[in-house]
Amino acid sequence: MKVTTIALLISRQDTNYRRSISVAERLSICLRFLASGDSFRTIGNSFRVGASTVASIVSHVVTAIWDCLVEEFMAVPTAEEWRVVAERTAPTAAVRECIPGDAVEPLPRLGRVAANNAGREAIRIRETLTSYFSEEGTVSWLDDI
After folding, report:
1. Residue 83 near residue 99 (C-beta atoms within 8 A)
2. In the chain, what are the domain boundaries?
3. Tens digit of pLDDT for each residue in 24-82?
4. Distances in Å between the alpha carbon of 40 and those of 6, 27, 60, 109, 121?
5. 62: which residues sit within 8 A by CB, 6+ positions away?
6. At 21, is the pLDDT very low, low, confident or very high (cuts 50, 70, 90)?
7. Which of 27, 52, 65, 88 is 20 to 30 Å apart from 41, CA to CA?
8. pTM of the predicted protein model
């Protein structure tokens, strides 16, 4: 099921002027880059596509894989999972006090931090973090800086 979801995200439509690069070839290009670490130019020569095409394919495929698998393999722990971890690692009272009461919530309005945050997106995230730590999450030592 995950493979078909990824395939739908990375497939492109043929046009009247050119045929699109197949899903299998897109995945092969991305996996070659991830496995070997070769330059985009070397991989492009191997697959007979341009270096900029390889860069675009790697970016889109890795993003699609991340979007499909992040919830399953990198889920945010619940409060109960935090308690189990705390009891297993250090059963002291000091550690138990650090366990959040509710599930850990990400900062509001951040979006995907791992995405290509160039220009406006980086400025927006910086402003979100600045407003959060200067209003809601103010800490006493921050005034000393």
Report:
1. yes
2. 2-73, 76-105, 110-139
3. 999 999 999 999 989 999 999 999 999 999 999 999 999 998 888 887 777 777 788 87
4. 22, 14, 14, 34, 26
5. 30, 34
6. very high
7. 65
8. 0.53
Note the helical H segments in the chain. 2-10, 23-36, 40-47, 51-73, 79-89, 93-96, 120-131
Length of the chain: 145
Backbone angles phi, psi at 65, to 5 degrees: -65, -45
Structure tokens at 8: 């739908």
Q: Which residues contact 67 (CB under 8 A, 6 or more apart)?
A: 9
- The one-letter amino acid code at 37 reads G
Nearest to 63 by CA among 11, 114, 25: 114
